[in-house]
Amino acid sequence: MSEEIQDIMNITHVKVQDFTANPAPLGLMGFGMTTVLLNLHNAGYYGMGAMILSMGIFYGGLAQVIAGIEEWRKGNTFGATAFTSYGFFWLSLVGIVLIPKLDFLLGSGFADLAPAPTTMAAYLFMWGLFTFFMFIGTLKANRALQVVFLTLTILFFLLAAGDFTGNIAITRLAGYEGIFCGLSAIYAAIGQVLNEMYGKTVFPL
User: Are 122 and 163 in contact (CB under 8 A)?
Assistant: First the structure.
């Protein structure tokens, strides 16, 4: 055996340790805060306005996409899929609200693009189905994450049912359930941050 081949066979594989920060709290917080604020609207406390839309674009949307990209860099397929998908969910939801309003600016028939209740029901149902399968993945994760995804699955299906039936009571119920879902995500985010900062379990997950 030649000396060159022997050198190749003796190469030592070096494992590079990852010292980058955990992006999950950013994604969970962006999701949680935006979800609470939107579902206060669904519960009937205030109307749809620039505050919700801005949160949907910047914190629920872009911040979660950034968190998803960071999870991808860490090799976390679940986190990358979840945060990137829900980030674009918020951006698509803002698009659904705003695109029909372009008729006011451009006068080109964009108002006709406003979704019918059954269309929104289908949209929300598909997100509920996606979330249900992601919930199955959380059965290998901590309890806090399981609560987030289970309540989010229920939220999407309730909102879909509310739009499909036109029953405002279902939408109001979904609003309260969604507030709990958002708060559970905020808890999971804060728990990860403070547990890491203190080096012990401050918030059980």
Answer: no
Spatial separation of the C-alpha atoms in residues 92 and 56, rounded to whole Å: 9
Q: Give the span between the Cα atoms of 66 and 72, in whole angstroms.
A: 10
- The 10 Å CB-count burial string (b at 16+, else e) for 7-16 is eeeeeeeeee
**Residue-wise pLDDT tens digits, 62-101:** 999 999 999 999 999 999 999 999 999 999 999 999 888 8
Angle, vertex CA 134, rays to CA 30 and CA 153, nearest 5: 75
Where are the chain's structural domains? 24-100+114-198
Please give the model's pTM, rounded to 2 decimal places.
0.87
Residue closest to 180 by CA, chosen among 192, 168, 169, 188: 188
